[in-house]
Design goal:
The complex is a heterodimer. Chain A is of the alpha/beta class. In chain A, about 35% of the residues lie in helices and about 15% in strands. Chain A is built from eleven helices and nine strands. Classes of the chains: A alpha/beta, B alpha/beta.
Chain lengths: ~325, ~170
């Protein structure tokens, strides 16, 4: 299996083999962070621009650290601190970044499809770091990486995604990745946040939490995305917590070897109680560690597939020194 | 191949009086199996267990930008710290020297070995860097157009070295 993509725009377009290649590559890159010197020269001389036009802590830091561990130079541009606030369009911002010879643009944007928009217009490789309610591919990749690492496989597992599915790009990317790798995905949450239309993606939809909890090998909890709700879709946070929050009482009725996941940021006492978030079954912080390895792998693979140096028709002499 | 590995193992023992400081590091993929075989031979003749690890140098290569597709990155797993050790790098085919240069770079991220040595099953010539092997299984003079293929039982099901002419 050879990697030939220049951009990572979503999981929907990836094959199961491509997803598996990213996971295998990430497994090798995870070791780099355990070295005395946590840095390899694979992207030396490349420039990675983190263009984050929506708030993010984890993802931006993770991409920045991933690029630095690969010896790339990094720039961070956030909405508040950039000319976006002066009325510059996304395309113009990006063209200016490209004029500085950036090799990769990591884009977080509130509009679905904005990474594709840039990929069609710029020479740089584009990585989607979350576009509206559409996709968040590296989050899904790190989630399946964590599942595979912890449980040894993805195929055949029952994965419950619980919470605000409607507005969640994490849910969409996870559904694509999990179903492509052969897992059974069940979505659960209030009817207003988990519409039946999701069945078209090849998943089960239920509003009965207790049944769903009992069968789950993995529970992926999602935060309520207040910022994307134009009107209130459930009566109150308190009611959501009491009906759909993963509290200790519900946690006791899950399988003893269940994996508790959350992409962060967690809202303690809402979708997850502190006891569950801090329990031995929770891999929330390991997801963060794995996110770094997955993003290093993505940058490495995309970098290897960028067309450049036409004179250098390579002689990759596999196996020979 | 068995004789060559056996002879290299003896040379490694002869050259390194303090076997306690020795670490064998095979380069992915076939060098890893060769390193394990060398360790097995050394164990057979001296009774000493030599720590043996695997190193993938893909992230340190200088030709990443010349390739059309990224190389497959395999695992790196070194069993011990390398500070003050004598590290023997093991690979199947020694050609331009660029893989070994990448390996030297990579190893320096794990510590500061007291000494680095190089063991290769086949030396086919055509060095592009000032690097020389300490232990050679067999010298095989080649032209640049030829292709050397080493197959190892553990990976390929058979122990075999073949020399193919190929189009330049």
């Amino acid at each position: 299996m050879n990697w030939t993509r220049r951009h990572l725009l979503g999981i929907e377009e990836l094959s199961a083999e491509e997803i598996t290649l990213v996971l295998d590559t990430a497994a090798s890159f995870k070791e780099v962070s355990t070295r005395a010197i946590k840095k390899v020269p694979a992207l030396r001389g490349r420039t990675v621009v983190n263009l984050f036009l929506e708030p993010s802590t984890r993802t931006r830091i993770s991409f920045e650290l991933a690029a630095k561990r690969l010896s790339a130079d990094t720039l961070n541009i956030t909405a508040q601190a950039s000319s976006i606030t002066k009325g510059e369009t996304l395309k113009d911002t990006a063209r200016n970044i490209e004029a500085m010879n950036a090799d990769f643009v990591v884009l977080r944007h509130s509009a679905a499809g904005s990474p594709r928009f840039l990929a069609d217009r710029l020479n740089a490789g584009i990585i989607n770091a979350g576009d509206g309610a559409h996709e968040h591919p590296t989050q899904a990749l790190l989630d399946v990486f964590t599942i595979r690492e912890k449980l040894g496989r993805v195929a055949g597992l029952n994965v419950l995604i619980l919470g605000d599915i409607l507005f969640s790009r994490v849910a969409r990317s996870n559904i694509w990745a999990l179903t492509k790798l052969g897992a059974t995905v069940t979505l659960c949450g209030p009817t207003t946040l988990v519409p039946d239309g999701f069945r078209k993606m090849g998943v089960k939809v239920t509003h009965h939490l207790d049944d769903a909890l009992r069968d789950a090998d993995v529970i992926n909890l999602l935060r309520i995305q207040h910022e994307r709700q134009r009107r209130s879709l459930f009566p109150s946070i308190g009611e959501y917590a009491s009906l759909f929050g993963l509290n200790e009482e519900r946690f006791r009725r899950t399988r003893p070897d269940v994996l508790i996941m959350h992409p962060g940021p967690i809202n303690r006492g809402v979708e997850i109680s502190s006891e569950v978030a801090d329990s031995a079954r929770s891999v929330i912080l390991e997801q963060v560690t794995n996110g770094l390895a997955v993003r290093m792998a993505v940058l490495f693979l995309l970098n290897g597939a960028q067309p450049r140096n036409p004179s250098g028709e390579g002689t990759p002499t596999g196996g020979e020194s | 191949m068995r004789r060559a590995i056996s002879r290299m193992a003896h040379e490694i023992v002869e050259q390194n009086e303090n076997l306690g400081d020795l670490v064998l590091t095979g380069l992915q993929t076939r060098g890893v199996f060769l390193a394990r075989r060398l360790a097995g031979q050394i164990h057979e003749s001296t009774g000493r267990e030599i720590p043996t690890g695997a190193l993938d140098v893909s992230m340190h290569r200088d030709d990443l930008h010349l390739r059309k597709v990224p190389p497959a990155v395999k695992s790196t797993d070194l069993p011990v710290g390398l500070d003050d050790k004598t590290v023997v790098v093991v690979d199947d085919v020694f050609f331009t020297g660029r893989t070994v240069r990448a390996a030297m770079d990579a190893l320096s991220d794990f510590g500061r070995p007291r000494r680095l040595q190089l063991a290769v099953l086949i030396d086919r010539g055509h060095r592009e860097l000032p690097i020389r092997p300490d232990y050679v299984g067999k010298n095989v003079p080649t032209s640049r157009q030829e292709h050397i293929r080493v197959q190892i039982k553990e990976e390929d099901g058979v122990d075999e070295v073949t020399l193919d002419k190929r189009e330049a």
